[in-house]
Design brief:
mainly alpha, 4% strand, disordered N terminus
Length: 258
């Protein structure tokens, strides 16, 4: 018989040993930006969701629709409502996650679904290269030929992060997996995330792609002023663990406890 406990009701004590925040150079964690700080990038929203109305205002009817869909999935879970993401990104998932973070930091009003749609218009490696060129241009980095090998893509996206952290405070999120799936079903996490950010757009809970989840999670982390090094996120479980901490609000609470 399935447990009646909220699968996302995970205490901070169970998360804090697995999730840590650090700066890129291993110095002590940075403190939140003062409200009066003169920064050129909007990366930190405090305890509230991003201020855009389409993100933060959820109508009662929309909330009921999401809750109804969540309840149906909870009571009728089948093999189709898998706890695994559909693999479509291979070793590019972590790179896409980091790119989505930078995209949200530089374009805080951009909707999640718009980047998901963009990613489907061309092969993922081509999309990543195009996005790297776009973000480099936005940050006024020198024009250069970008190679498509994974190790180079990781280096390119970390270069973007290095520029961003010089302009505004960005914390680095590290995660270590200690137990297998301790944080509940994937669909429960997604339902919670979508309630918080309706700009995710339509989600097929039965077939969530890794690339879609990477973009969704990246936008959430970017809105909180957090970054993940693509060299550190090695598995789907790493990504899902951070996603669960974001969905239940524990990561945000952890950041503000520093």
């Amino acid at each position: 018989m399935a447990s009646t406990e909220d699968p996302m009701d995970t205490s901070l004590d169970t998360l804090s040993p697995s999730i840590s925040l650090r700066t890129h150079d291993e110095s002590p964690p940075l403190t939140p930006i003062p409200n009066h700080a003169d920064t050129s990038l909007s990366t930190h929203y405090g305890t509230s969701p991003p201020p855009s109305p389409e993100w933060s205002l959820v109508s009662h009817q929309h909330g009921q629709q999401i809750q109804s869909q969540f309840d149906q999935l909870s009571h009728h879970q089948t093999s189709a409502t898998t706890d695994n993401l559909v693999e479509d990104a291979a070793d590019l998932g972590a790179i896409l996650l980091s790119l989505a973070i930078i995209e949200q930091i530089l374009s805080p009003q951009k909707q999640i679904y718009s980047m998901i749609k963009e990613s489907k218009d061309q092969p993922l490696p081509m999309f990543i290269l195009d996005k790297l060129y776009q973000l480099r241009s936005k940050l006024h980095l020198p024009d250069q030929y970008l190679k498509g090998e994974t190790k180079n893509l990781k280096r390119y996206v970390n270069e973007l992060y290095d520029v961003c952290r010089k302009r505004s405070e960005v914390l680095v999120v590290n995660v270590r997996i200690e137990t297998k799936d301790p944080l509940g079903p994937l669909f429960a996490m997604l339902a919670r995330l979508k309630f918080r950010r309706p700009d995710i757009g339509p989600i097929d809970y039965h077939c969530v792609k890794k690339s879609e989840f990477a973009i969704i999670l990246g936008f959430f982390l970017g809105s909180m002023g957090c970054y993940t090094d693509p060299n550190y996120i090695r598995t789907e479980a790493d990504m899902v663990t951070i996603g669960a901490a974001v969905a239940c609000g524990k990561l945000e609470a952890f950041i503000h406890s520093l």
